[in-house]
Structure formats: C-alpha cells, structure tokens
Amino acid sequence: MSEFERDKSREKVAYLDPTNGFQEHTTYVEVREDGVTGVTSRILPHRFRTAGGQDVREHAEAGAATCPFCRERMEQVTPRFTADVIQEGRFRRGQAVLFPNAFPYGRNSSVAIFSHEHALRLSAMDVGILGDGFLVCRDYFQRLQQMDPGLGFCSVNWNYMPPAGGGLVHPHLQTICGPRPTAFAAKTHESARGYQTRTGRNLWEDLVAHEKREMERYLGQTGPVEWVSSFAPKGMAGEVCFFLPARASIFTLTDEDVLQLALGLRCVFRYLEAAGIASFNLALDATLMDDAAFGVRGRLIPRFTLPPLGISDVNYYEKLQNEIICITVPEDMAREMRPFFERRR
Fold it and tell me: Residue 331: is it exposed, middle or buried by C-beta count within 10 angstroms (0-12/13-18/19+)?
C-alpha cells in the first residue's frame, strides 16, 4: 500500500475467441482497492468505453406539461417551510428556489431548483445559475445551524436525468443535513482523521499534491477547487473527485469559491457531452462546524444505460457484492478530460 492506502493487482483472463476462429485471447482485469474511501473497483479496459450518444429530449418533452418545478406551477404545487424556518416559505437566490422535499430522506431534506428552463443540455448550464443553486443550499444550511447548533454535517446532491435516478428532468439539487454524515462520508472522514493522527498532516492537501506530482489522474484547478479522476471509481464510467483543501466547512465557501466550483463542473459537463454521456450523480459533502480533516469535497459519477435494451449500468457486483465494475480506465479519463480544464473559459 502507498501512503494513501491504495493497492492494485492484475488478473489474467484467457479464453478461445469465437470472433477470431477460436484462437486463444488474453486480457486482464485490474482490481483496485482504495483504503481512503473503502471502494474496490474492477477496471475492465477490454470492454466498450461509452454507451454512445444519449438523446434525453423524449424525457424532457414527456414531463414538460406537468412538471411541478416549472414557473407556472412551482408556486402552487411545491411545499413551503413553516414560518419558524423562513417567513416567506422558501429560500431564494437569483433563479434558484429551495423548498422542503415532499419525499424526504430525513428531517432536513430539501429540493433546490436553479433554472427557469425545464430541461437544459449539459453545455447550456451557465456558471451563474449553477452557482446560485449551490449558494441557496448554503443559505438553507445557515438557517438550520441557527435553529439547531447540534447539526454537524451536510450534503448537496444531484441526480441528473433518468439514467441517474432523476425522477424529474427539471434541473434540481437535493440536500441532506444532520448530526451524522452519510456512511460514505463517515468512512472518508475516519481515513482523514487517522491520517492526521499518524502524520500530523491534512489528507486532502497531501492527496492533491500527490496527484499533481504523478499527473496520472490530476485534471486541473478552478480557483481553490482541485479536480482529480478517482483511483478506484464508484461508477462504471469512472468518477471525478473535487476537493477544496483550504476550506474547513460549508460556511467557509465564499460566493467566488462556489462560482469556481461551477466553472469546474462546466468543464466536466463539456467532456461528458463530447463523450456522448448526458446523465450523472453528484454529491458535495461538508461540515457545518470547522473541521479541516473532513473538509469540503465531492464527486461526480457519469451515468448511462446500455444499448440496445436500455439496461442499467449498475449490476450485482455493485448492489450485492459491494464492488464496482468500471469500463473506463481512470488514467485514460484524466488524459481525455484534462484539455477541457485547460481551455475552461
């Protein structure tokens, strides 16, 4: 294991190939274990790389007439907060509107829409509206902390389009906030605290510095935000991680920090669109109280369905065996995505 508790091994696979006269064919599966995240990924470079172009227009057109997040219906059909939370019933910033989740995952579960448009292509997502979406979530967390100082952890999440579990096409974020982090965030927090105890150093700062030196998976930087292709991805099409090592809580993020985060997301979105992928899951995890070991960090996983039957990209390996099948080599993803950060403007 390296200083960041990473390991990888190769498994040789041989079979008689029916597409080549049953001559012997040899390939390899690479098994990667990440001690920081607890993720085990099986990298299958011999399989197809992407699912091809995704046409999401049918999803957009099918839901436009009844979408509860569109302006003509939003005020009447979405929930409001009680007056003790916010007198106006909803939090607002620019086009962004945040209100209670009608199908909550916990006590402080909200939804934030950030665009008047019912459906947006990835390349059409403006830095300003993206920024307002994350900032209105920060406003909500600020109010929650005022009401309950015992709340310690928060998360901003995004299921974009049906292949990623998005039940509504209209772009929207969802929040989690409570006294404990989610299981995955807790695992990484444990790793960061252990690293700090052993070395006296910040795991996220050292991890980013390591990736910059190696330049195998490092993508680029937008302001204080560092972008890396994950060593052991949590998704079949890879994973992009982002870190703000100098920020210790959600409230240390400035408005400019959030705009720089949005700028980096735009780089990722342009890469995804060029690769024919139009769906993803995103999570940003942070604390409400300063904790440099936890930090502010997140990840984005491209999602797609497999043609011709529209099969899910999640199978038994992930759901039942707790390992990830990944058909994208992380170092290849970094090499292909890096130019999008170099010409990010």
Answer: middle
Instruction: Evaluate whether 168 touches 118 at the Cβ level (below 8 Å).
Output: no
Report the range of poorest mean pLDDT among 51-60, 253-262, 331-340: 51-60
Residues paired with residue 243 on neighbouring β-strands, in sequence order:
226, 297
Pairwise CA distance, residues 289 & 126, whole Å: 30
> Residue 31 in contact with residue 44, Cβ under 8 Å?
no
CA atoms within 13 A on the CB side of 320: 3
pLDDT band at 64 (very low <50, low <70, confident <90, very high): confident
Asked if residue 208 lies in contact with residue 214, where contact means CB atoms within 8 angstroms, the answer is no
Dihedral sign, CA of 71, 145, 255, 137?
negative
Q: Which residue's structure tokens are 């409001």?
A: 80
Residue showing tokens 């403006």 = 126
Nearest to 174 by CA among 277, 104, 262, 79: 104
Length of the chain: 345
Which residues lie closer than 8 Å to 41 by C-beta, 6 or more apart?
Answer: 31, 32, 34, 232, 233, 234, 323, 324, 325, 326
What's the helix, strand, coil split of the chain in %, to 5? 35, 30, 40
Q: Containing H/E element for 65? A: none
pLDDT digits (tens, 9 = 90+) for 151-178: 999 999 999 998 899 989 999 999 999 9
Other CB atoms closer than 10 Å to residue 215's CB: what's the count? Answer: 11
